[in-house]
Amino acid sequence: MRAKELEDLKLVDLKKVAKSLNVPQIYKMNKLQLFNRLYAILTGIELVAEKRTVKVDTKKRYRENATPGTLVAFRVHGKLMTAKIVNVNERAHNTDLEVHTKNGTKFHVNVLDVLWFKTGMRWPKSIFDELKGIASVKK
After folding, report:
1. Is the Cα torsion angle 15, 21, 24, 29 positive or negative in sign?
2. Residue 30 vs residues 1, 10, 50, 90, 120: alpha-carbon distances, Å
3. Helix, strand or coil, per DSSP, at residue 103
4. pLDDT at residue 139, as a whole number
5. In the chain, what's the furthest Cα-to-Cα distance?
6. 68-115, pLDDT tens digit by residue?
7. What is d(CA 41, CA 46) in angstroms, rounded to the nearest whole number?
């Protein structure tokens, strides 16, 4: 069978051809996967499907784009606190955040010490529980 003829075959027919060629695990494959495997066997050329393998570190993205007005949860002397970013001081390899708590206390926090950047309406359950004194977050 020629590789060009594979394109016109249905999934059932592709499975029959694959079974005759002793291709393993044919019942777990969809039509595209099976076609690519058979094409590689018949022509010796492997077709590579494009895959997105880039994984963006979300926390890193928030660290880089920290803006004044964002609420953050951070740890000071072992205690979890929340505050609003007032100023972002960028240095060569370090970024310090000037934050103010609700009662007016000012802190200078390294951006790496921030546990959470609050962008939505709620805190994550683990952060919320520790703020209320219910549980502790893994360090």
Report:
1. negative
2. 20, 11, 16, 50, 39
3. coil
4. 52
5. 78
6. 999 999 988 888 999 999 988 877 566 788 999 999 999 998 888 888
7. 8
Asked if 113 contacts 107 with a C-beta cutoff of 8 angstroms, the reply is no
Closest CA to 16 of 5, 1, 26, 3: 26
- What residues form DSSP beta bridges with 81? 74
Q: Nearest Cα to 100, choosing from 116, 113, 81?
A: 81
pLDDT for position 85: 93
Domains and CATH numbers, the chain: 3-43 (no CATH), 58-131 (2.30.30)
Give tens-digit pLDDT for 29-46: 888 888 888 888 877 765
- Predicted pLDDT of residue 83: 94
pTM score, whole prediction: 0.54
Other CB atoms within a 10 A radius of the CB of residue 20 amount to: 9
Provide CB contacts within 8 A for 45, sequence distance 6+.
39
